[in-house]
Design brief:
heterodimer, A: alpha/beta, Rossmann fold, four-stranded antiparallel beta sheet, 10 helices, 10 strands, B: alpha/beta, 2 domains, seven-stranded mixed beta sheet, three-stranded antiparallel beta sheet
Chain lengths: 281, 317
C-alpha cells in the first residue's frame, strides 16, 4: 500500500518527532480501510485500503470486471460495503465515519461536498432541461432562491468549461459528447465539492476531445484543490491526471503506488502486462 | 403514527367548526329513515371502507400536505372523473349536509350534475348551487369565488398527487425526498419557465408548501386560486382515486406558492371584465364565439356570476 496504515481520522501521526506542526497536517479527505463490497458474495472488490488527501488524484485502473466501479459505488455509499470503514473529512463536521452517518447527511454530502461523474453523460445529466438549469440544480437543492444569481453562476461555470454562455438555455441533447461531459463536470463542481468520483470520464470520447477534457480536468483539480478518484482502463489518463494509482484485478488491489513508479517500473505481472500493452505510436 | 378509532375521536386539530366532526360521527350510524335509495348503503360506500377513509383523512389533517395512502375502491365512475373526490365526499358526508359540486367552476357540466345526482340518490342529502349554503363542496379544478367560511369542507379531485413525480419517477425516492424535505429540485421547473418564457409560466397545478413543511400539488386549479388556499377557514381535503392518496389542508394553515426571490409568485392581471356580470376580480373563461376570432370572457364560477347578474337586475328594478 502506498500510504502506511494510519488510524483513520487521527489528526496527526501518533509518534513523530520530526513531523511538521499538527495544524499543517490535515486528515486525509478519504481514509479507506479493509473495504469489501460484493454483489453476490463473489463479484466486487475486497480488502481495499488507501488514504486520499486534498488536492490528490487517485486513478483506479484494471480490466473490466475487476471491481473498479463497485469500489466507486461503495466509497460514495451508493452501495454500502459489507465490511471495512470509510472515513471522510467533511467541511462541516470534520472526520466522519460514513457508516455512522444518517441518510440525511449522506444525501447532503452527495449533493454538496461530493461530485459523481458518470461515463455516459446521459446518466448524470437531466437531458430534457436546459444546460443552465442542469448546472444550477445543485445550488437550488442547497437552498439558493435567487434566479439572477443562479443564472450568473451557471453562465460562469459554462464559460469556465470553455463553452459559449449563449448556449445556457439549450438542452444537453443538442450538445456534442465532449460538451455533455464538460457540462456534467460543471454541474458537479458548482457547489465546490471536496471530493469527486469519476467513472470512466473520457471513455466515450474521441482522442482529441479526450485530451482537451483531461487538460481541463487537470487545471480544475489544481485550481480548486479537489481530491478525485478516477476509474479508468486507460493508462494514459492515469499518467496525465493522477499522482497515485491503484491497479485492480479480480476485485483486489494488486499494485499501488505513485503513478510514474507504477507505469515506469511495474512489479506485478498483471501491471507489467497492462503497461506493455499500451500502443506505441 | 397511530390513529385513534374514528368513532371516539376528538375534533381534528384546527377544525373550529363542529361540522367536520359532525359529518364524521353522523354517517357512522346509517340513518334509519332517509329519502335516499335504500338499495345502497348510506353514501354508496360500505361502513368499513368509509371508516378506513376517515382514518386516512384524520391522519392527513394531522400532517398538513402529507399524502396518506388509502385503499381506493372501484367507483361507478371512470378514473379521472373524480373517483378520489367522491370517495372522500362519501366518507365525510352526513344526512344533514348540503352538497355542491362544481367542475371548472361550473355547476351544470355533466361531471358536476352526475356527481350531485349520485349523492342525492345514495345519501339522500340536499344539494345546492349556492356556495354559501353548502357544507361540502366537491370541486374539480377551481375554488369558488365566494369566500369560504368555517365549517365548510372543500373536496378536491386530484389526478396526480405527487408534486415530485416529473422530477423522480420512483415512488420510494419521492417519499424519501418528502421525508427529508429535499424540495430544491422543484425550483428547476420554475427556473426553466423563466429561462424560456421570461416569467414563471406555470399557470395551473402550481406547487405549494403547506405549513412550511410538505410540498403539495393543489390539484389542477389555476394559480389564480392559490392565494385562496392560504389560511382558508374551510377544511380542504384532496382525494386521488387512481393513485390511492388523500391529503389535506386544515383550516387556517399557511400555504405558500413556490417562487424565486427576484421572481416572486404573482397572478397576471386578466385584462378583461366578465361580459355577463362585469366582475374584474373573478377568474374568467375565454369563450370563442365564431371562427372569425370573436371571443367573450365570462366568469368561470357560474353560480357567482349568476348571483351577481341577479343582484344587478334587482337593483335596476
Amino acid at each position: 500500500m502506498s500510504a502506511p496504515a494510519r488510524p483513520p481520522g487521527g489528526r496527526a501521526p501518533s509518534h513523530g518527532e520530526d513531523v511538521a506542526p499538527a495544524q499543517d497536517i490535515e486528515p486525509p479527505v478519504l481514509a479507506v480501510a479493509g473495504l469489501t463490497c460484493t454483489w453476490d458474495g463473489v463479484h466486487g472488490c475486497r480488502d481495499i485500503d488507501f488514504d486520499l488527501h486534498a488536492g490528490e488524484v487517485l486513478c483506479v485502473v484494471g480490466e473490466s470486471g475487476s471491481g473498479k466501479s463497485t469500489l466507486l459505488q461503495a466509497l460514495s455509499w451508493q452501495h454500502p460495503p459489507q465490511s471495512g470503514t470509510v472515513h471522510y473529512a467533511s467541511r462541516e463536521d470534520g472526520v466522519v465515519d460514513l457508516a455512522a452517518l444518517p441518510q440525511v447527511r449522506l444525501r447532503r454530502l452527495a449533493r454538496t461536498e461530493w461530485g459523481f461523474m458518470r461515463q455516459n453523460p446521459r446518466d448524470g445529466l437531466r437531458m430534457q432541461i436546459s444546460a443552465g438549469a442542469n448546472i444550477a440544480e445543485r445550488l437550488m437543492a442547497v437552498g439558493q432562491r435567487h434566479y439572477g444569481e443562479l443564472r450568473r453562476s451557471a453562465a460562469h461555470w459554462l464559460q469556465r468549461m470553455e463553452m459559449d454562455a449563449a448556449r445556457l438555455d439549450d438542452t444537453p441533447a443538442s450538445f456534442s459528447g465532449g460538451m455533455q461531459q464538460r457540462l456534467q463536470i460543471a454541474r458537479n463542481l458548482v457547489t465546490h465539492p471536496r471530493l469527486v468520483f469519476m467513472d470512466e470520464p473520457t471513455a466515450s470520447l474521441d482522442v482529441s476531445v479526450q485530451a482537451r477534457l483531461l487538460d481541463l480536468m487537470r487545471g480544475l483539480v489544481d485550481d480548486l484543490g479537489l481530491a478525485a478518484i478516477v476509474v479508468t482502463h486507460d493508462l494514459a489518463v492515469a499518467r496525465l491526471l493522477a499522482q497515485r494509482t491503484l491497479v485492480m484485478r479480480g476485485g483486489r488491489v494488486v499494485e499501488a503506488g505513485l503513478t510514474d513508479q507504477i507505469l515506469d517500473d511495474p512489479q506485478h505481472p498483471y501491471t507489467q502486462l497492462l503497461v506493455s500493452s499500451i500502443l506505441q505510436g | 403514527m397511530t390513529v385513534p378509532r374514528a368513532a371516539n375521536l376528538p375534533s381534528p386539530p384546527n377544525a373550529t367548526g363542529s361540522q367536520t366532526t359532525m359529518a364524521i360521527t353522523q354517517s357512522l350510524s346509517p340513518a334509519a329513515s332517509r329519502p335516499g335509495d335504500e338499495h345502497y348503503n348510506f353514501a354508496y360506500l360500505d361502513e368499513s371502507t368509509k371508516r378506513m377513509l376517515r382514518r386516512a383523512l384524520l391522519k392527513a389533517v394531522a400532517i398538513p400536505g402529507y399524502q396518506v395512502p388509502f385503499g381506493s375502491r372501484e367507483m361507478p365512475l371512470p378514473y379521472g372523473w373524480g373517483t378520489g373526490g367522491i370517495q372522500v365526499t362519501s366518507s365525510v358526508i352526513g344526512p344533514e349536509d348540503v352538497l355542491k359540486v362544481i367542475d371548472q367552476g361550473s355547476d351544470d357540466t355533466t361531471n358536476a350534475v352526475n356527481i350531485r345526482r349520485f349523492f342525492a340518490r345514495v345519501a339522500g342529502v340536499r344539494t345546492t348551487e349556492a356556495t354559501g349554503e353548502a357544507t361540502i363542496i366537491q370541486t374539480r379544478h377551481r375554488i369558488p369565488e365566494t369566500p369560504l367560511r368555517e365549517g365548510q369542507i372543500l373536496v378536491f379531485q386530484v389526478p396526480i398527487p405527487e408534486p415530485l413525480r416529473w422530477l423522480e419517477p420512483r415512488e420510494t425516492e419521492t417519499r424519501t425526498m418528502h421525508a427529508l424535505s429535499e424540495y430544491g429540485g422543484m425550483h428547476v421547473s420554475l427556473y426553466e419557465d423563466i429561462a424560456h418564457q421570461g416569467c414563471i409560466a406555470t399557470s395551473y397545478d402550481y406547487p405549494v408548501v403547506v405549513n412550511g413543511r410538505y410540498l403539495m400539488r393543489p390539484s389542477p386549479i389555476p394559480k389564480f386560486d392559490n392565494p385562496k388556499l392560504d389560511g382558508s377557514p374551510a377544511l380542504m381535503l384532496f382525494g386521488a382515486g387512481r393513485e390511492k392518496r388523500v391529503y389535506a389542508v386544515p383550516p387556517y394553515t399557511s400555504v405558500r406558492s413556490l417562487d424565486f426571490e427576484d421572481y416572486p409568485f404573482s397572478i397576471e392581471p386578466q385584462g378583461h371584465a366578465c361580459d355577463q356580470c362585469g366582475s374584474t376580480t373573478s377568474f374568467l373563461d375565454e369563450i370563442i364565439m365564431d371562427d372569425r376570432g370573436t371571443r367573450r370572457f365570462v366568469c368561470s364560477d357560474t353560480e357567482y356570476c349568476a348571483r351577481r347578474c341577479a343582484e344587478q337586475v334587482g337593483r335596476r328594478a
